[in-house]
Design goal:
Layout: E1 18-19, H1 24-34, E2 38-43, E3 46-52, H2 53-59, H3 73-76, H4 81-84, H5 98-107, E4 112-117, E5 120-126, H6 127-136
Parallel strand pairs: 1-2
Antiparallel strand pairs: 2-3, 4-5
Length: 138
Amino acid sequence: MKRRTPVSEIMSTDIIALRRSDTLERAEKLFKKHKIRHIPVVSNESILGMLSYTDLLRISFADATDDEYGVDTVVYNMFSLEQVMTKNLISVSSDTTIKEVAEILSKNEFHALPVVDDSLLVGIVTTTDLINYLLKQF
C-alpha cells in the first residue's frame, strides 16, 4: 500500500449535483436512480453544501417506498434543500492523501467529503471509495 497516494486516485469525478433551487423530491429521485448516498449542492462549480440520503430519511419516509411518486411530497414541500443540507463542510483537495481522508472520516460522523481545488468542486470521496481501495490492496 502506498503511503502518499492522493485521494484523486479513488474519488468520484462524475458528480451528480443539486442546485440550491432544486427540490427535495428531485434529490430523492437522484439518490434512488443513481444508487448514491451523498449529493453536493453547488452554485456554478462551487460547493454550497452536501445532502445525504440520511438527511432525507430524518424528515420523511423516503426509504419506505420505491414508488416514482412517494408519500413524501407533502413533507418535502415543507422544507427547502437549504434547510436540510449540511452547510459547514469539511473538504479536502485532490492532492490530500488517502490516509488523511481516512483519518478525517474516522473522526467525524459523516461518510463523504467534497474534493475542492481552487474553490471548485472536482470530486467526492466516500467511505465506500476507501473500502474499495483497501480491498484492492489484498
